[in-house]
Design a protein that fits this description.
Layout lengths: L7 E2 L2 H9 L8 H7 L9 E6 L2 E3 L3 E9 L5 E3 L4 E4 L5 E5 L8 E8 L2 E2 L3 E6 L2 E4 L18 E6 L6 E7 L4 E7 L1 H4 L3 E9 L4 E5 L8 E5 L4 E11 L15 E7 L3 E6 L2 E2 L6 E7 L6 E3 L1 E2 L11 E2 L11 E5 L5 E2 L1 E5 L4 E4 L9 E2 L4 E6 L6 E8 L4 E7 L9 E6 L5 E5 L8 E6 L4 E9 L9 E8 L3 E5 L4 E4 L5 E10 L5 E6 L5 E3 L2 E3 L8 E8 L4 E11 L5 E4 L8 E2 L3 E5 L5
Parallel strand pairs: 3-10, 11-12, 20-27, 21-28, 29-31, 30-32, 40-49
Antiparallel strand pairs: 1-6, 2-4, 4-7, 5-8, 6-7, 8-9, 8-10, 12-19, 13-18, 14-17, 14-19, 15-16, 15-18, 20-22, 22-23, 24-26, 25-48, 26-28, 31-38, 32-37, 33-36, 33-38, 34-35, 34-37, 39-41, 41-45, 42-44, 42-46, 43-45, 46-47, 46-49
Length: 573
């Protein structure tokens, strides 16, 4: 049963009012009552959610795993979250038109907020696994595909599911665990026949998470088996797990989307793209959608800054289809884009202007794609090629040649991964050639890559060291912001947006040199009622070019949040 007085549901209109006015204090009746007496409760902690996701248009009962005094409040932009009388339980309503595959949920009370936990969004029916299902004889068989099964690998556990297939049918199974949920499990997927004989298996597909496909040679019952090892190995070579080893297994014999081509677009909406995956009909064209919801555009996740140097004004858009399982993210970039695929191996280099984002494909083994660019003496080039970080198969390399064909540079693995970034300063005016190839000379119909070529320019990144801040009653809040400068970035003025009424924060300047060049501290002061909600820090640079950047939280699961959660503790009465 739900306690209505403890429900907090943020609708798009409520978010619009709170963001643009700016953010107003959240004044739940139970919170005000709590503040009338001594403050006792500690801030909640949130380790994970189970189930860790739900389907669009559904209502899901979710267990919050962590430490907290119940009840608390919950925030998840784009979702409606109702807090239950039962400790640790919330009910989440997911809009049918929510265009995202992941939302971040946090718990909070008058003392502070938890770290946000990922909650995945699907377009398929969802169920929770039925235990015991370890052996072929115990395989769960009451599933109607397509389906997402929410499970937990609690130990030396192997979850097994029985799926009937016709001859010629292709079954696809994909697991979300470590890469998008942060689950501490390195999982394995197998497809076996009814006697348990393994027909196909996969270990790592997207990071440590597996994906597998199998075409049935004859009609019959087939088994999908999930088991795993700890993502951080220990001295034991054995199946392992734990109560926090949550996972989501998607299974279908129909179409499943993994990517959309091109990988980058220069317009944000109503652009048709071609989806790529399994059992996909001939060249379907699907329009992209704004990530999340237009009202929530300032508080949805963004790509975390990394050494691969994705342009900071890059946004993400979604590709969804009601009749297909899965979805895809596409980058929306502020530069020209090109789709360059299926060129003859011996074709001359493609001439492109800077900046440029190119979706290419290494379709044939040992294929090398070449792109010709013009550089001035002293001009700095930043070239990035990405496949693995986008969930694609190539292990790409970059090579750079001058107009005479002399190799000037080669870069393989960068930023602790398989993708590559190259910084180059032209020694003379002229034409140069950037080459993309696979380190293992592999290729195939799905061997796509995204090549970004742009001149190095002055820029800066702003990051928080935490996801939340608590300002006790009567104290001045100290909000550190890290500043990372690129090139000859000029002075940067930082302002805070979204403070509750009665609180102020003076702008702070990050100078070119000195202590503030690498970080500043914003000071929040004033008298206020209790407040819990998001705030944003914006940095503006006017010289040598005009730029605006928002501070982001520490990177997690290849994402960051462009806001911080603020808790203001009002004086007790």
């Amino acid at each position: 049963m739900l306690a209505v007085q403890r429900i907090w549901c943020r609708t798009p209109s409520q978010y619009a009012k709170s963001w643009h006015s700016p953010f107003r204090p959240i004044a739940a009746a139970w919170l005000l009552a709590l503040l009338a007496g001594p403050l006792i409760a500690d801030p909640p902690t949130l380790e994970y959610l189970f189930p860790a996701g739900g389907a669009r248009g559904s209502r899901v009962t979710v267990e919050c795993k962590g430490k907290f005094d119940w009840p608390v409040q919950a925030d998840a932009p784009g979702l409606q979250v109702a807090v239950s009388d039962q400790s640790g339980q919330v009910q989440i309503s997911i809009p049918s038109d929510l265009a995202t595959d992941r939302v971040w949920l946090r718990l909070y009370n008058a003392s502070g907020a938890s770290e946000p936990a990922p909650f995945l969004i699907s377009g398929s029916a969802e169920v929770v696994e039925s235990e015991p299902n370890d052996s072929p004889a115990q395989a769960q068989s009451d599933l109607n595909l397509p389906v997402v099964v929410n499970g937990v690998l609690k130990g030396a556990d192997a979850d097994t599911f029985a799926i009937p297939l016709h001859a010629g049918q292709t079954l696809i199974a994909a697991l979300d665990a470590h890469t998008r949920l942060g689950s501490p499990i390195d999982a394995v997927l197998q497809i076996a026949n009814s006697q348990g004989i393994v027909l196909a298996d996969n270990h790592d597909w997207l990071g440590l998470d597996p994906q597998i496909s199998y075409q049935a040679k004859s009609a019959g019952l087939y088994l999908v088996r999930v088991f795993g090892f700890l993502a951080l190995p220990n001295q034991s070579i054995a199946l392992q797990g734990g109560n926090n080893c949550i996972n989501r297994l998607s299974m279908t014999t129909g179409p499943l989307i993994t990517h959309a081509i091109p990988l980058a677009v220069s317009e944000q909406s109503n652009i048709p793209v071609q989806v790529v995956g399994w059992n996909i009909p001939e060249a379907p064209q699907i329009s992209i959608q704004t990530l999340g919801h237009p009202v929530f555009k300032n508080i949805v996740e963004v790509e975390a800054p990394s050494e691969l140097r994705t342009a900071l004004d890059t946004q993400q858009v979604m590709v969804l289809a009601d009749e297909m399982v899965g979805c895809a993210r596409v980058r929306h970039v502020s530069m020209p884009v090109s789709l360059v695929i299926d060129r003859p191996i011996d074709a001359p280099p493609v001439e492109v202007d800077l900046p440029h984002a190119i979706t290419g494909r290494l379709k044939s083994p040992a294929q090398v794609d070449r792109y010709a660019i013009s550089l001035k003496q002293g001009q700095q080039l930043l070239a990035t090629v990405q496949s693995r970080t986008l969930g694609l198969l190539p292990d790409p390399m970059l090579r750079l040649f001058d107009s005479a064909g002399k190799q000037l540079a080669e870069v393989d693995d960068s930023a602790g991964g398989r993708d590559a970034i190259m910084a180059f300063t032209a020694p003379a005016d002229g034409s140069y050639v950037v080459a993309v190839l696979d380190r293992h000379q592999a290729g195939g119909p799905k061997a796509y890559y995204l090549l970004t070529l742009r001149p190095e320019q002055e820029d800066f990144e702003l990051t928080f060291s935490a996801t939340s801040l608590v300002v006790p009653a009567g104290e001045i809040g100290q909000l550190p912001v890290n500043v990372l400068r690129r090139g000859a970035a000029g002075p940067i003025t930082l302002n805070l947006e979204g403070l509750p009424e009665g609180m102020t924060c003076e702008p702070v300047v990050s100078a070119v040199d000195g202590e503030t060049s690498k970080g500043v501290t914003l000071k929040i002061s004033g008298n206020s009622r209790s407040y819990s909600g998001p705030i944003r820090v914006v940095g503006r640079m006017e010289q040598p070019r005009s730029l605006l950047r928002y501070a982001t939280t520490p990177a997690r699961l290849n994402a960051a949040l462009p806001y911080l959660w603020l808790t203001v503790i009002a004086p007790t009465q």
